[in-house]
Design brief:
The chain has 156 residues and is mainly alpha-helical. The chain is 49% helix and 5% strand. The chain has a two-stranded antiparallel ribbon with strand order 1-2.
Length: 156
């Protein structure tokens, strides 16, 4: 199973937001710059993360993004399930398959998909941002903020 770019960016955005409080808000432009992705696509990802309730967004001059929950409360499997959707791995109904009604593949794939999400739910956002990953994310924050405000993100 391969994740969509949408789910991948959702995970990266949540990971980026795990860093300690800063004096400046985290913006879509900042995250898009750090991960070298189009801001327009990231805006859609951020909108979805906000709809689900994992992040809070504030518009305006001093606006930005932040996590709604502590990283230890956000399960990776649930993030992927919400970002990817719960559609079956193959669309047996749309294929006009001659095996329809007598094939065990659909059921086997559904079991595998549940196992995939259940396995990933053993990990939280806090788990996947432990060192060395957390240090790399902190370095991205420092690189973006420059030398003036780096004191705000060095507490990792």
């Amino acid at each position: 199973m391969q994740l969509t770019r949408f789910a991948d960016l959702g995970l990266r955005t949540l990971m980026y937001l795990t860093q300690p409080a800063r004096t400046t808000p985290v913006t879509i432009i900042e995250i898009a710059t750090q991960f070298n992705v189009p801001a327009s696509h990231l805006t859609k990802v951020v909108h979805r993360l906000g709809q689900i309730g994992w992040i809070q967004t504030q518009r305006g001059r001093n606006g930005g993004l932040r996590l709604s929950f502590p990283p230890a409360e956000i399960r990776i499997g649930e993030v992927i399930r919400q970002m990817e959707g719960d559609a079956p791995l193959i669309d047996c109904d749309g294929l006009n398959c001659t095996l329809a009604g007598g094939c065990g593949l659909r059921g086997a794939l559904a079991v595998a998909q549940r196992a995939f999400y259940d396995s990933l739910n053993h990990y939280t956002l806090a788990d996947v941002t432990k060192p060395p990953t957390g240090g790399k994310i902190a370095a991205l924050h420092r690189m973006f903020l420059g030398p003036v405000n780096t004191y705000a993100v060095t507490a990792l």
